[in-house]
Fold these 4 entries.
Entry 1:
Amino acid sequence: MTVTPDWIAVDWGTTHLRAWAMAGQGLTAKPAAQVESNDGMGTLDRAGFEPALLRLVDGWLDTGAPRPAMLCGMVGARQGWVEAPYAPVPATPAALVPVRAPCADARLRVFVMPGLKQDQPADVMRGEETQIAGFLALNPGWDGVICLPGTHTKWAQVSAGEVVSFQTFMSGELFALLGAHSVLRHSVQGEGWDDDAFAAAVTDALARPEGLAARLFGLRADDLLHGQAAATARARLSGHLIGAELAAARPYWLGQNLALIGADAAAGPYAQALAAQGVPVTRTDAARMTLAGLSLAHDKIKETT
Amino acid sequence: MTVTPDWIAVDWGTTHLRAWAMAGQGLTAKPAAQVESNDGMGTLDRAGFEPALLRLVDGWLDTGAPRPAMLCGMVGARQGWVEAPYAPVPATPAALVPVRAPCADARLRVFVMPGLKQDQPADVMRGEETQIAGFLALNPGWDGVICLPGTHTKWAQVSAGEVVSFQTFMSGELFALLGAHSVLRHSVQGEGWDDDAFAAAVTDALARPEGLAARLFGLRADDLLHGQAAATARARLSGHLIGAELAAARPYWLGQNLALIGADAAAGPYAQALAAQGVPVTRTDAARMTLAGLSLAHDKIKETT
């Protein structure tokens, strides 16, 4: 099968690179093929970006008109392919203008999405602004809060198509760090998941969110003294972190119209925790929102170039 | 100079091994020499402990009577030289009975201190019980709370010579992990320290302790957006963690008679944070307390063997 896309969509994070061959324009554009690699932005110097992308998409390119490649994520950071400066909030994600990146290969025209920044409290995002733009394009007139679970979970207040403010939590990175590098690694590594332990940990952390560092050591002690299963310890670790996050993010979800954008592994525990608080949540797929957002950006470069 | 100790004191943690040549008995015993290595308990299998100790102290041993070596710390864990089972609280640290460890070298008789455990909430300590025993021996009749800052900071409620209850916080390990392995490593690594930033972060975290995971990402964003100095970011990271810990540990220090046992690097920030809350603190040296505690244990094995 030969894939000859109309344009190429790219989600380029710190640790991962994913590209889709897109057929069609605007919100009806569909991915015809998908490829990925571990050439994350964090592993590349500036000269490495173009070769890393070509390794994935070379077979999609021909001698016809150059194909636009629409990129979002950490690839637009200062250490990325080209710096796409942050737009300050309040900002309209659908109005963000992609930045042209230098590209030696004449078969490609490369554009990178800007991220968003908030001056006080200081905060930044790269990649999520594109998913929010896609979500709002697919849900016109939607107002409320969008939570984007991940390594650095974002909570964004959206009104009239604008991101008004947002807040980032490092809970996902803490979960990964503690499971891989801390004394807890002996207690949480393994298979399985304990739903009840997760729910109890969320409830406990919501009630007394200040005790995180003590709860963490308690996971180790419960293993040493009571032989706690790894599936239970890992679910409790996640529950302690997400419960503390929900306690701090309460203004973002209490009585708000709430949407979750994320893959099941990241968003599932948030959905479970919020459901237990009686909060109804709209679940959506992260990749689909990324493609919708990049499709909007692709329409924009057709208009402006 | 030839050192021929009466007995040998050993503090053997997960990452570090330290031994003192002791002259004299009981609380008047004094260290005549000190040696150390990186042969922590975490790097050794069971057969490795005796050789690791002999590498340090071989020169102190002669053909006279075998010398007692009194060991405390993780060396008494299940994966240590010999398991010295935890004593359950309430427990009197001065009454703990050292466990004899097998030793092929006839010049040594090796004894390992037991740790303490608490069933609910599950908690454990190994090493701090010896420092507490030493502190209480040097401060007879002392009642109150002892805080032992470190990788896993302990808060112990002490009454009538007993540890009644205790709680462990992983704040120290979180500080080390986040500075070395998280996205914050780009923002906190460097020299210097910012006292005012530390104090402000402690105050902020004490007032709203639930927001830790968001404050952490804010350190990165303040670097990206406002060029925050590494000395400021590192002091704020410490302040956020210790402030959250103080919020959770409030029952342990509010209106209590409080002693801090720890080296300056670990205990200094706690002392500063507590002073800012108007809490008077007795500071003591960790190594001195360890030696006093091991001296008590040494007296005990003379009685019983």
Note: The first helix of chain B runs from residue 49 to 57.
Entry 2:
Amino acid sequence: MGFCGVPGHEFVGTVTDGPKHLEGKRVVGEINFSCERCEFCHRDLRRHCAARKVMGILDADGVFAEYVAVPVANLHLVPEKLADEEAVFTEPLAAAFEILEQVQLEPGDEVLVLGDGKLGLLCAQALKLTGADVTVVGKHAEKLKLLKRSLIRTALLDEWKVRQFDFVVEATGSADGFQLAMGAVRPRGTLILKSTVASKHHVPLAPLVINEITVLGSRCGPFAPALEALEKRMVSVLPLIEKEYALSQGLDAVAHAGRSGARKILLRP
Amino acid sequence: MGFCGVPGHEFVGTVTDGPKHLEGKRVVGEINFSCERCEFCHRDLRRHCAARKVMGILDADGVFAEYVAVPVANLHLVPEKLADEEAVFTEPLAAAFEILEQVQLEPGDEVLVLGDGKLGLLCAQALKLTGADVTVVGKHAEKLKLLKRSLIRTALLDEWKVRQFDFVVEATGSADGFQLAMGAVRPRGTLILKSTVASKHHVPLAPLVINEITVLGSRCGPFAPALEALEKRMVSVLPLIEKEYALSQGLDAVAHAGRSGARKILLRP
């Protein structure tokens, strides 16, 4: 987005200035700041507001800071029993739950999640809650191992033999992911795109028509089910954390987060 | 598909050899010959049969011939009141009706059809039956004029100012169509792909994710509603015909059909 400003859009914080009923309370916050005036806001599609600002991404400073300003309407109270280290996953977990707003999964449906990054592992756990038969294919044995105690199947990409699934979630974050995903979705199946890879893809679209594939773009999601899943311990997020840095060590933290295979890095002001 | 054989997959014919109740009857026929044994056939997805032959396209000779062999299960009787010149549109009109199997259009939904070829004009008419607000954008004034007596809006591409629609049907048959279509679909809108352009596209997929677009591949469709629409004169197909050739003039006919702006060319054995 060519953004210039304070980055960061996943946070948990304490309200220091705002409505009395929120002051001193722990909150998480939705990242799309909507105008409440445009056609999309009126149609209850605020996350697609045509004039939106997006925290740390578009026209609004983000959360790699001691303080951040967030519209009251975007805030959600954090249940007491949730640790900061769990609540901070609400935003990416909501993005995983967005898939369940878009498609109806049935127990036994075969679902493939491509990518074992943070988003891939969260998507797999959210989708598994439907009783679907979920497989995650990734490049990092140590990340796939994090799913060991779940009922989610895992495979290393190099050792995996492509087969066809009812639903494929593309969460690789790489330019090759789309092509790989197209090869793994059955005729009349659904391919859910989670990666916002900026480069142009060389995509043959004819197979999409011939096999009548549905491709769904999927971005930010609803916070309420994500918070509920965290509170009820229906998903496991603490093993996804690699290290916590002080905000003053922010540059080291960003460098660490950029290492291949790194899990979630947290910053604490 | 690298097909080598007799081309052609849109036809109306008379049964000369087959079950007694069909002999001498006029029929049209579905083009996917399914195996009846694979997983897709068992799931009632015969048009996606993994071992299918496709008339004039894949492993089965087509209809640019005096005689063609078609499985009995693929045949549909042609109502008496339909002329050959109307019935021959059943297959492409069925492909247009396939869209209505895939999406639910409501009266007032804003629908854009990109492309004023035969398929574009048929799609526009089929979709208009839902009461949706349909606009066709194309390159040929004389083709767009064919829709004059319908309630379908038309515009020439060069004079058209892009705006956003709830549904966009890409029926240009050209490699640029996808990009154009992406620019004309609103956030959370649906883009229906009808063109099977063989070349690879350079497609930026990030906007698809950010705007949560649904992309639907759409191919062959159901014959029954197409035949009914033809019989009840709910769509107008005769103006789409440009010329009829004898089969012996087939090469001239194919050359004519390939001219820019040509409407439907018919062959009669």
Note: The longest helix of chain A spans residues 90-102.
Entry 3:
Amino acid sequence: MPAMTDVPIGLIGGTGREGTGLARRLARAGFSLVIGSRSTERAREAVAALGDAAGRIEAADNATAIRTAGVLFLCVPFSHARTTIEAHQDAFQPGSLLIDVTVPVSFEGGKPTFVEMPEGSAAEHVRRYLPEAVRMAAALKAIPARMLGDVDAPLDCDDFVCGDSAEARDRAIAILQRFPGLRAIDVGALDAARVLERMTLLAIRINRRYKVHDTRFRLVGLP
Amino acid sequence: MPAMTDVPIGLIGGTGREGTGLARRLARAGFSLVIGSRSTERAREAVAALGDAAGRIEAADNATAIRTAGVLFLCVPFSHARTTIEAHQDAFQPGSLLIDVTVPVSFEGGKPTFVEMPEGSAAEHVRRYLPEAVRMAAALKAIPARMLGDVDAPLDCDDFVCGDSAEARDRAIAILQRFPGLRAIDVGALDAARVLERMTLLAIRINRRYKVHDTRFRLVGLP
């Protein structure tokens, strides 16, 4: 079995703010990456912009990223999550892991608003459209994208990871534990995303009220 | 104007686990209290059980507590919240403040489950039945009741306070700031309770999974 860092991690929609921040953080942690985008050209530009970090990072279209990587982060804006998954049903490999990091918050009239989903959360919404043979976890929901990209700053907080199986959560946690200053906590089944995604909204509300930028959470009482 | 600690704080349904823990904590912080219960006799027993802390604590039925105190904590089990409020419509004083600390979590088949309310949260549900002239805040949603009662232990966490006006939140925060080791954070309008109440469920899930008892939250990134 190859070392974990030899298996490339794919980023679906990896050219946006969340995706490039996450790419920086993953590259710094030693992972090989495939940055996917609807346009390979855009993916190439994103890889080039990563500069020194770009050594082990490839650019691809989303379908190729999905076919190539054993672990995938879903980094598209939440409003594109379903169509992205639906458009690539055949590319997903059985046994691969999708880690959803989308945030279902819209800014209606400038006011941050939780986008209610019939499934209860964005993660469960994604799960509904994902091929059954693909495992799924949700993570990094309440970690500010800007902090992910600021790789010299320790994250100094906890991440709450849920997923559709213990194995899915363990695989996600093993990756996230390599981020300096981040403790990844297993919070069980995927429906925990109903809490985690709303915590993002809470952090955004606090950021605005107190004129700060990077509030995030730490759990007290867990040794 | 009398000092804040001279105005008694009332606890509606103050004889349960949440109520007695909160009573200990408030008494230690120097507040005068009125412990309310459906039965004055039960309230008297609860006051007696507070022992040394009981000097400035009176027992009363809920109606008397509601009429007497300028600030009220709603400590009944959530399943009794609506009927308790409805039964005492005439006792509430205009301009008084109700601080909802109820937690809408049930244990169905032993599994902690969020009780979905048509209003979105327990706090908004309570607001709907509360007389309009009573102001309202929600607080202490994710602070373990056991820790509230363990008055020698600093809480060492943050509390997230929402409410229907800045004035309501400020009054609640001024009280909570007197609890050692607790930072009270203003998170805005009452609908933030949709997040806060679910965070309680998250903490319960983590407690069970990791076999701990008192997980709670701290916000990182707010100076």
Note: The longest strand of chain A covers residues 157-163.
Entry 4:
Amino acid sequence: MDDIVSRLTRELGPDAVLLGDDVRARATGWGRPGPCLAKAIVRPRTTDEVSRTLRLCWEAHQPVVPQGGLTGLVGGTVPAEHEIGLSLERMTAIEAVDPATRTMTVEAGAPLQAIQQAADEHDLLFPLDLGARGSCTIGGNVATNAGGNRVIRYGMTREMILGLEAVLADGTVLTSLNKMLKNNAGYDLKHLFIGSEGTLGIVTRVVLRLREKPKSHNAALVAASDFANVAALLAAVDGGLGGTLSAFEVMWEPFYQLVTSEPARNRPPLAYGHPYYVLIESLGSNQETDTERFEEVLGQAMTAGLLADAVLAKSRAERDKLWAMRDDVEQLGRLAPIFTYDVSLPIPTMPGYVDEVRAGLAAQWRDPKCVVFGHLGDGNLHVIVSVGNGDLPTRRKVEEVVYGPLRTRGGSVSAEHGIGTEKRKYLSWSRTEAEIAAMRAIKQALDPRGILNPGKVLEATEIHARA
Amino acid sequence: MDDIVSRLTRELGPDAVLLGDDVRARATGWGRPGPCLAKAIVRPRTTDEVSRTLRLCWEAHQPVVPQGGLTGLVGGTVPAEHEIGLSLERMTAIEAVDPATRTMTVEAGAPLQAIQQAADEHDLLFPLDLGARGSCTIGGNVATNAGGNRVIRYGMTREMILGLEAVLADGTVLTSLNKMLKNNAGYDLKHLFIGSEGTLGIVTRVVLRLREKPKSHNAALVAASDFANVAALLAAVDGGLGGTLSAFEVMWEPFYQLVTSEPARNRPPLAYGHPYYVLIESLGSNQETDTERFEEVLGQAMTAGLLADAVLAKSRAERDKLWAMRDDVEQLGRLAPIFTYDVSLPIPTMPGYVDEVRAGLAAQWRDPKCVVFGHLGDGNLHVIVSVGNGDLPTRRKVEEVVYGPLRTRGGSVSAEHGIGTEKRKYLSWSRTEAEIAAMRAIKQALDPRGILNPGKVLEATEIHARA
């Protein structure tokens, strides 16, 4: 047995360290059924055990790959043969829900859905929501600064985190479990760990900001005849609905057709033939007056010529159906093999961007499929491309077509999925040399031996390579 | 002339470098009329000039103190004799307001009020607002992560910044002018500079997130008979008003009496005799229905026994009067000499905290004055103490009384004002050794020579002391 593995086994006990087939049988990410190549998976039960694990790995210059619910899309949780996986799967406690401070303190392995339910049981809301809610963990949400469906109202994961505890590469426990909305006592260290994909520390506990639970829901699906109308509609509903707009999800027609045609379970609530369909949702405090307002604002938009067609959800069931349609991303499998992208760019530049991507694809492939949808209110588009046979050379060519036009538009190769290994090559297309150098300086400062998730986000450092 | 000063003068031209009496005549912070002791004040006109200034200072191991509107309260902009001030006063341009992306790009020296007005002219809102709006600059707001009156609705300055440009200690220009709500392409470097009080870089440009301008305003002043009712009221109005609650400002009775009695210009809108007075404000989208909702929610609170008394602002003038009363902090001068504190702590612990502070003061001084008010919805209290003659030994004793009881409550010695030099001694009362060590590691990584605002937030490093 590898020396570090036997030391970890002695330190934490054999049930905490998976080996051999128990490791091989594990997945490593969404759409990555395995085998997991890691030389061991360590499953600590406490922050202290995470600390002791990292201390031993630090001493041995042993690279470690933190793992949460394994629903990431960019390879951020995939270990190589010489690496050890550190899974938070036994640290799932919801330690405290405190309605008085409207906070919840949880271990990092707690699944998002369990957190949503615990908040709900206290008549409060934890607003982060995304398709993987049943499997993803809050630690993974923090590590990737997850976005999801309600960013326009409640922000990214970053905005929902008041404090956290992280273990640094050398095993130092950094406990920063702030519960206040305001705390300007020195640097706000939590931001180092949020969105850095496990490369600067392993998050072990989190203090979440809870919100009052909405008492009213309204939703509508509308169609628009050009992109300028979509943009004007966003401004109109955001202003008109006060602080209650909670989603503004745009579907380009090819996506809408896909999720409303056989074998999809949903039928089209609005006729085909419009270039854009928008799912609009508001969450408020009074069903009667909020519905009145919602209908009034959409009526004004109709009068102003922004809408080509519209249908209001008249019940909870109708609203759920609109969301089920929007969330039915499994239909994308009908286009397989596919490449999926998650980009952000200034809203006014979107139509030109999509045109350029389509033209770029058409220049290289016959009959390319390009399906676009996304959280438009956040500047975030998901672009799904189906061309050729899905092999790696094709993929690289598609990446150039999809990521290239972002460069002149100030866009980002990752809106919400992160960089991992999948997009590392393109980080420099969204960030300057000076920015990447500053990231390296931070990595070097907090993990000088480069043992934490090496090669994710940034190239593995030479220091680690020497170890 | 000092060697570095002459080099800077040659590099930027004589009008960019103030010397002698021109320096002495300057203020260094709020309530600090001067003289400014710096050996020079450099006033660059462009990011490139900031970069050239820092490169020269870096080479010379010359400490630099960045300066904005000089309205800070914690000594963060005060230079010593051997230091050079770097003022952003000639970089005040509002470079672009872009309604399509709802962003504004400004130079760091732009005053907050000019930014508010520019947003307003485009029928948009930049929601940051604080008393110093006419003098403070956005660069200073960013450096201190300023809070203010509407944090409960719109967050701190941090939440309003999409991108920024900063110059690092060695003159490297880090341009990260992101305009999207979502960008997970690597570490989010802006958070390093927000709230680090000019110790990690000098912010030169900022991309601001603008919001739709509210179309309705409602406000009320209410009285409550005990703190549990105040806390329950917060939950009730936050839930009942949907996303529109924009302020929940609590005044303990002594503060209320101070701002409603001669020579203050305002008379008490509600009778004296209640322990707590709360200014509640909502900003929404429809005056008629929002007012109806506002009155309904307060009516329910009254029925539930949460309110001892209430008065609604029936007009813009009445609302402005309520705010003028709350903002009339000049009345605190009647208690001079005073010490002012800005703490945050979990809301449920507040009454016990205030009792403990009062008891601590009464144990040491005869007839101490302790006036409390604050942004309660954010967990933020301002505590004003008047005892003894206001000398430094008295002040240190008062600090122990005010900051001490925060330690067991997980509170912070700085909610929104920052640490500067004034609170440096107490940083360890709100942050662990591990947290402070991590802050030092970051400082060391970005400013290894310790030339940027040395001694602010953290003790000056040995490295700088050796230089």
Note: The two ends of chain B are 20 Å apart (CA to CA).
